[in-house]
Amino acid sequence: MEFRLAGKKALVTGGTRGIGRAIVLGLARAGADVVTCHRQEGEAADLLARELKEIGGDHHVIKADVGRLDDIERLAEECRARFGSLDIVVNNAGVISHIPFAELPPQEWRRVLDANLTGTAFVVSASLPLLSAGASIVNVGSRVATVGVPLRAHYTASKAGLIGLTRSLAKELGPRGIRVNVVAPGPVETESEIPAPVRERYQNMIPLGRMGISEEVANVVLFMASDLSSFVSGETIHVDGGI
Description:
With 243 residues, the protein is an alpha/beta fold. The chain has one domain (9-239): Rossmann fold (3-Layer(aba) Sandwich). The protein is 43% helix and 19% strand. The strands form two sheets. Strands 3-2-1-4-5-6-9 form a seven-stranded parallel β-sheet, sandwiched between helices. It has a two-stranded parallel sheet with strand order 7-8. Helix 1 (18-29) runs parallel beside helix 2.
């Protein structure tokens, strides 16, 4: 299936690594112009910028932390100045940590919720004046939102909150022709090394017998961003191999 997004303007948060990187490259290859952001300077951001230049198009890699409201406002202003409007917003940026709930510091709860849930809400809010009729908002969630995982109560709560936020926004923004959906990955291979026992446990849990790859999640995000899913809104699409 070929996704044709020529002329579309997209914002992707957290786009320099893993799933976010695959989403940015997928959108660019489908013809969209993309603004993406990252929290830290480094080789990942530089490499993405070089790859986007090779693909061609009007792409920009910007430093911004969606856990900070002033950075979100600056990011939206960059999109306005460079594109004038947006057709696609992908909220991919997020953080995670593994801490027993009894030992979870309040500041870590706030850090994860601010990045994963509050940041998403504020990115949507800041983007609203730029969104065209027919625009698509895709929030990258997680399979854990509906099952729960030990040591990640704060992360799970943030991703579960995305589902409720998405359902409400789909109903509120639908009359403007704006669709809002969640794409929820299961276990996915990324740049981080996964210990062998953890990999084996995941593979035993997944009916397809393997972990996913970032591009498989990105393909679903592209579908949800495109006109091929023009009557899909308020949904959570799990990309988890049937776990």
